[in-house]
Amino acid sequence: MPIMTCLHYWIWNKLGGKKDFFFASAEMGRWAFCVLILLWILFPLANSSVDGLDKVRGVNLGGWLVVEGWIKPSLFDGIPNRDMLDGTQVQFKSVTLQKYVSVDGGGGMNVTVDRDVASSWETFRLWRVSDREFQFRCFGGQFLTSSEGDPISATVTSPALNETFYIERNDTRVHIKLLGGNYVQATMNNQLTANYRGVPGWDDNAATFEMTIAANNLLGDYQLANGYGHDKAKEVLMKHQRSFITAGDFAFLSRNGINTVRIPVGWWIAQDPYPPAPFIGGSLVALDGAFSWAQVYNLKCIIDLHAAPGSQNGMEHSASRDGSVGWPSPDYISQTLDVIDFLSARYANHPALLGIELLNEPSAASVPLDVLVSYYMRGYQIVRNYSSEAYVIICQRIGNADPMELYQANIGDSNIVVDLHYYNLFDPYFDNMNAMENIQFIYESRVPQLQSLDSANGPLVYIGEWVNEWSVTNASQIQYQMYGSAQLQAYDAASFGWSYWTLKNDRIHWDFEWNIKNKYLLLGSGYWILEYVIRKWITATSKQCFGNDPSVEAPKVWESNERPK
Questions:
Q1: In angstroms, how far is CA 266 from the centroid of its own chain?
Q2: Which of 72, 199, 311, 437 has the fewest CB atoms within 10 Å of its CB?
Q3: Which pTM was predicted?
Q4: Which residues touch 132 (CB under 8 Å, ≥6 apart)?
Q5: Is 361 in the active site?
Q6: Alpha-carbon distances, residue 248 vs 58, 171, 258, 501, 557 (angstroms)
Q7: What family does the database annotate (predicted)?
Q8: Which of 27, 361, 405, 553 is catalytic?
Q9: Are 184 and 178 in contact (CB under 8 A)?
Q10: Active site residue: 465, 469, 559, 562, which one?
Q11: How far is Cα 84 from Cα 86, in angstroms, rounded to an integer?
Q12: 465 an active-site residue?
């Protein structure tokens, strides 16, 4: 029976059958810490190792050299028309026809204004040219296009001037104008044409549309750089790179028992200081500085290629322009291998390098396994051309994919690691779990998977991302401590180790520094004390854990056998 289940059962019984786990948790916390000093003296914590080195107890430096707007939203505050960045999804409804602009088949055909309800064919992704000029990408990948007076169609795959439109805004109402001057209008026969003459007002007329922003959730490097423009973006990013992570952060990590930093980088770092537009240089200098700080504070570095050219998952942290995934193309893969060669050549012999992660979170829906395995094999060999000792880390595909697929691929012979990312989030399965159920899931699902992978006699196992956060509302500090300690106990068993996501974050429970300083996450003696107490309770009350006391009814939370598929 899982450790935390037995703990809950024991406390619940000892408190007279109270079915309030919050109260039980508080009772545990009040006396657990009273024995901290005695237990720390009597039972020292053992060290674990990987090939003679301490296992990775790491922290990610997320949001630093690869921008993620949810980590630090204020980076985007100064962008004009901030709600219309690259990848924003918009819909247009004619105010006269009360119909939505639509592309039959999602692209490749003429555009009509004849839909009562907006769905994927009525949704366009913005490509931002300036703060007022945009290109509209359809569901199928084509762009809206027009010349003076002709009907609007969606037939062009590479946008240029004829695919660029000027938007005038008045609250939610907009006018769409060609660069040549004509306004786009919805005709009475449900066509979209670019032949409205004159200047329309904001009353109900054929050239006025209601614009709905259906989604605006991409806030990455592309959106920041293209939103500000080069000069202002450079100013914002240089200030961010100098202040967000400093030598003092490395000192803090070292003092708190962290021995490794996982550093996400974007593909454009290989062309620093003058990467292709709109990306901004400077990340290479910052990465060099991180290696120097790591050497001073006796930390190791994992370089994580977080953003590949074309985007490997369509998310902001892979620098996707509009949410699409282009990476599996041969040209992008070749370019990515060049980045791995650049990073290997520059850092392979640096004493602070621990490993290079070839790609972060490729999408299972968009990246075929055979393509990914081929890339990993070639990337592994590139790293080996420069180092026989550096660890080569390969990340599992996110989505519907089993990490065992990488263990069966025979990608490399030595010092190879599979990276798993464990979050009790991002899936409806976790939405209604309470604190106890989340903790049970760690022991009943995560632990068996780690044990299965460790016994596969393949690559080492690395929990490259995890966080002390969940969907539980109004959780207490002791519940966070228990959840974090359960994860630490589970992930300490990973043969390579773990790295917390992330060091700094505006969302406090994602912020490692905040968690440590405010004692929501207990490392070292604090974490070990909780584990020790849990184990002592189980030893003392094992008969009750196995149900030998018929007078006590088990809480109903333990009766569910549902597990994610």
A1: 14
A2: 199
A3: 0.86
A4: 81, 166, 167, 168
A5: yes
A6: 16, 45, 14, 19, 44
A7: Belongs to the glycosyl hydrolase 5 (cellulase A) family.
A8: 361
A9: yes
A10: 465
A11: 7
A12: yes
